[in-house]
C-alpha cells in the first residue's frame, strides 16, 4: 500500500488562479475526497456539480466528518470555524490542478501519451503499452479494460479515472520507475476536467462518430469535448490525428502542439496501405516499408498506424517499432477469434457503437470466402445513448445473414424496452432473419445451435467485460466463457 502523502494547503493551491480563500491556508491536508461519504479527518472535500446531484449539498456532512478544507464554487451559508473554504469558478478544473500538485505532478516526470476518439482508444493505448515494454521501457497503462503498472494489474472503474485517482495512479507508476504511460482520454474526462493539470508528451485522435449524446446532448458538444484535449496540449507535445476522419482537422485547429498526421487514403506524415487482410494476418505498407501484423481488420490498420506514428514521434527507430508491432496481439475482447472443432469461427468484440459495429462487420464480410453465414448476437447498454439502439440493429441486419438481438448491461432500464428500441431499426424485409432473445446466455447458445461449419458468429458489445450490470449489481457474465461452453457442447 502507498504511504498517505500529506501536504500544506497553500503548497497545493499554487497553480489555482483566482481562488478566494476563507480561513488559514497553512493547514495539513492528508487526502482529497469527492464523495462526502468517504471523508476522513484531515481531508480536502471537493464539492462537484454532478449529473445526479450537487456536491455542494454535502459540505455540511463533510465538515462533520472532519474535513479540514472545502473546495467549492459557492460558499455554504454557515461557515465552520477551523475549516478553510477555497472558492473557485470551477471546482472540477481546480481539483485537477490541486490533485496534480498533491501528488507532486507525476505527469511531468513521465512521458505521458493520451488517446482520444470514439473507438480505438483501448486498442491504441494497449498496443503502445505492449510495444514500449517490448522495446525495453518500464510502462504504465490506464484503460477501460484495466490499469497496469508493468505486470501489476489494478482494476479500472472508468476509462479515464477522476483527477485524484488518476494522479495517484501516475504517482504510483512514477515511483515504480515507469518512464512511459499510455492512457485513454474519454470525452467525459475532458468535459469533467479529469485531466486538468496533466502534462502530456503527446495526444492521439482516432475518430469521432455517434456516441454518448445522453451526456453531451449534441454532437457539437461531443466534438468540442474531444477537441478540448488537444487545446490543452503544451507546445512541446505532438498532436497526431487521423486525416481520414472528417473531424481530424478540427481537433487540432487551436492546439499549441506540433500537428502530425496519419492516413490510409491521402498524403500524411504516416501513410499506410493495406496490401492484404485475412483471418490469419494483415499485410501493410507503412511509409514504404512492408510489414505483417497478427492483428487484423481495417480499423486495426488505423490503430497500428497511429501507434507506429506515436512511437516514431517519441524518438523510436522505425525498423525496431515495426518488428515489435508485428508480434502484437489484440487486447482482450477486441476482435478475439475462436475456432471450434467443426470450424465455426466465434468472434468476441467490444463494438458498442454503430460505427464500431459497422467496422467489425465490414471486416468480417471482407474476410469471408463466400458461402458461410454471418450470425450476429448484439445488444445495447441501458442508461446510455438511446439513439444508437435502432442504428446498431440496422447495421447488424445489413451485414448479417441472421441477427439475434439480446441484452447488454441493462443497468436501470428494462431490457425489453431497450430491445424494443433496437427492433425499430430492423428493416421489415429483415424481420424474418431477426430474433429477440433477452437472455444473453440463451441468445449465444441459439447462435451456435443454428450455425453450420465455416459460419462466423459475432458476439458484440461486451468484449472483455466479465459481468452483466443489472440494477446496480454486477452479475458474473463473460461472452468468451459462454462461447467456449457452446463450442464444448458441439464437440461432445
Ligand atoms: C456521467 C458521469 O461521468 N458520471 C461521473 C460523475 O458522477 P456524477 O456527475 O453523476 O455525480 P453525482 O452522483 O451527480 O454527484 C455529484 C457529486 O456529489 C458527490 N456526492 C454525492 C452523494 C453524496 O452523498 N455525497 C457526495 O459527496 C459525488 O461524489 C459527486 O462528486 O462523477 C463521478 C465521480 O468522478 C463518476 O464516478 C461518475 O461516473 C459514472 C459512474 C459513470 O458511469 N461514468 C461513465 C459514463 C463515464 O465516465 N464513462 C467514460 C467513458 C465513456 C467512453 O468513452 O466510452 C469514462 O471515462 O469512464
Ligand atoms: N480505430 C477504430 N475505428 C473504428 N472502430 C474501432 C477502432 N478500433 C477498434 N474499433 C472497434 O471498436 C471496439 C472498441 O474498441 P476499443 O475498446 O479500442 O475502443 P475505445 O475507444 O477504448 O472504447 P471505450 O469508449 O468503450 O473506451 C472494438 O471492439 C472494435 O469493434
Ligand atoms: N465505456 C462505454 C462502454 C459501453 C459498453 C457496453 N457494454 C454498455 O454497457 O453499454 C460506456 O460506458 O458507455
Ligand atoms: Mg476504452
Main sheet overview: 11 strands, mixed
> What's the CATH H-level superfamily name of the largest domain?
Mur-like, catalytic domain
- Going by CATH, the architecture of the largest domain would be 3-Layer(aba) Sandwich
Unreliable residue stretches = none
Q: Which ions, cofactors or small ligands are bound in this entry?
A: ligand UAG, adenosine-5'-triphosphate, 2,6-diaminopimelic acid, magnesium ion
Counted by DSSP, the helix tally is 16
Number of domains: 3
Share of residues in helices: 25-40%
Radius of gyration: 24 Å
Q: What percentage of amino acids are in beta strands?
A: 15-25%
What would you note in describing this structure?
It comes from Dyadobacter psychrophilus. The protein is α/β, with parallel strands linked by helices. The protein has three domains: 7-97, Udp-n-acetylmuramoylalanyl-d-glutamate--2,6- Diaminopimelate Ligase, Chain: A, domain 1; 104-327, 3-Layer(aba) Sandwich (UDP-N-acetylmuramoyl-L-alanine:D-glutamate ligase), CATH 3.40.1190; 336-490, Alpha-Beta Complex (Protein-Tyrosine Phosphatase, Chain A), CATH 3.90.190.20. It is built from 16 helices and 26 strands. β9 (139-142) and β10 form a beta hairpin. The longest helix is centred in the middle third of the chain and has 16 residues, at 298-313. It starts with 6 loop residues before the first strand and ends with a helix. Bound molecules: ligand UAG, adenosine-5'-triphosphate, 2,6-diaminopimelic acid and magnesium ion (MG). Adenosine-5'-triphosphate binds next to α4, α10 and α12.
